[in-house]
Design a protein that fits this description.
It is a multi-pass membrane protein. This is Chromate transporter. There is one protein chain. With 187 residues, this protein is mostly helical. It has a domain of 100 residues. It is built from 7 helices and no strands. The longest helix is centred in the middle third of the chain and has 44 residues. The two termini are 36 Å apart.
Length: 187
C-alpha cells in the first residue's frame, strides 16, 4: 500500500465534502472508492469496518468515517486533518448559503433544482445500502438477511426507537458470533 501526505489527505476530504450532497450515505461510497479502489490505501473490507464503526458512534457518519480513515492512514494527526477537511466545506457553504438563500428561494427553477436533487440522492442512497448489504451478506447470508429484514420491519411498523433496534441487533450479532467462534475453536 502506498503512503499519502497530510496535504493530499486534507484536499481529498475537502473536495469530497465540498461536492457531495446528501449526507453520510452519499459521501461514504465516494470515500470508499477514493481510498480502497482508486488509491488502494485501505482494503475494501477494512473500509467497511471503518464505516460500521463510524455508524455506531455519535455524530455525523461522514465526519466519523473521515476521522477514522485519517486515523487509520496517519494516526491522530491524520484524524485531525480529515476532521478539519470535512467540516470546513460545510461551514463555508452554509455561511454563504445563509446570505444567498433568502434572496433566491422564491425563484421557480431554484426550487425545482433543489427538489430534483432529492430523487438523485435517494438513488445514491439505495445503491449504497444495496452494495453494503451485498458485501456484508456474503459471509453470513441467512443470519444477516434475517437480522436486516427484521430490523427494518420492527423499525417501520412499530414506534420502537431506532437506537434500541441497532443496539439489540448489535448484541444479537455479538452473541451469535462469539458463540459461533467458540464452537469453531472447540472443533
Amino acid at each position: 500500500m502506498q503512503n499519502i501526505s497530510f496535504m493530499d489527505l486534507f484536499f481529498i476530504f475537502f473536495k469530497i465534502n465540498s461536492i457531495t450532497f446528501g449526507g453520510g450515505y452519499t459521501i461514504v461510497p465516494v470515500i470508499i472508492e477514493e481510498f480502497s479502489q482508486k488509491r488502494n490505501l485501505i482494503d475494501s473490507n477494512e473500509m467497511l469496518d471503518i464505516v460500521a464503526i463510524a455508524q455506531s458512534g455519535p455524530g455525523p457518519m461522514a465526519i466519523n468515517t473521515s476521522i477514522l480513515t485519517g486515523y487509520r492512514l496517519k494516526g491522530w494527526k491524520g484524524a485531525l486533518t480529515c476532521l478539519l477537511a470535512s467540516i470546513l466545506p460545510c461551514i463555508i457553504i452554509i455561511s454563504i448559503l445563509y446570505y444567498v438563500y433568502a434572496g433566491i428561494i422564491d425563484i421557480k427553477w431554484i426550487k425545482s433544482a433543489l427538489e430534483s436533487m432529492g430523487g438523485a440522492i435517494s438513488a445514491v442512497l439505495f445503491f449504497t445500502v444495496f452494495n453494503m448489504a451485498k458485501k456484508n451478506l456474503a459471509k453470513h447470508k441467512i443470519f444477516g438477511l434475517i437480522l436486516m429484514v427484521s430490523s427494518f420491519v420492527i423499525g417501520y411498523f412499530t414506534n420502537i426507537n431506532t437506537i434500541y433496534i441497532i443496539a439489540i441487533s448489535g448484541l444479537i450479532g455479538l452473541m451469535v458470533f462469539t458463540f459461533a467462534k467458540e464452537e469453531d475453536d472447540v472443533k
